[in-house]
Amino acid sequence: MRPARRDAIRFVLLALPLLAVCLGLYAALIQPYESAVVRVANLGLARLSRPFLLEVDPGGALAMYALTSDGARRLSTPRPHGVFLSLALVPTLLLATPAPLRDRLRWLLVSAPLVFASHVVAVLVLYRAHLVLRDDPGSLPYEVLFGLAVRSGQLVTLALWALFTWRFWLGSRGARDS
């Protein structure tokens, strides 16, 4: 069997059980993780000329409030289903890549803060786009931004996996074995 085919088979066989484990961890950790993302996002939202506040409601949905002199007014509760998907997919893909374990662990450690930062940015973009589209449903730039924010979990996953593993998959055999 050719080495490239063997690596691909090994990748798939490792990815399936890793995906099950990562999805289980995702289900167990998503609420505290969402809260951490929201706390960091609120640092940026509080500095806007019209300050906003994000909260995670008891059902796990994100809620946005406009802070006014009269108090907080609830604006919206879009559900960012795809935003946090990379929390489970990035570790699955990086750890399943049949590279040396030391490299996979290094990739995972470096990618963790990048995934977190991408989630904070995606939540901020998602809510900004959602507010603009609520008032102006035909705004093409904000429709595009909203779509990108919703799909950011998948886009970030592919981007990070490609960034860290391209040398393994596309490099020479000698580079892989060293």
List the helices and strands and how they pair.
Blueprint: H1 3-45, E1 52-56, E2 62-68, E3 71-76, H2 86-96, H3 101-135, H4 140-150, H5 152-170, H6 173-177
Antiparallel strand pairs: 1-2, 2-3
Helix pairs in contact: 1-2, 1-3, 2-3, 2-5, 3-4, 3-5
User: What is the share of helical residues?
Assistant: 55-70%
Q: Spans of 5+ residues with little confidence (pLDDT < 50)?
A: 173-178
Give, in order, the helices and strands.
Answer: HEEEHHHHH
Q: How does the helix and strand content classify structurally?
A: mainly alpha
Distance between termini? Answer: 20 Å
- What is the number of E strands? 3
Dominant shape: elongated
The count of helical stretches stands at 6
Rg, nearest Å: 19 Å
The major sheet is characterized as: 3 strands, antiparallel
- Strands of the biggest beta sheet: in what spatial order? 1-2-3
Q: Quick check: average pLDDT?
A: 83
Strand content bin: 5-15%
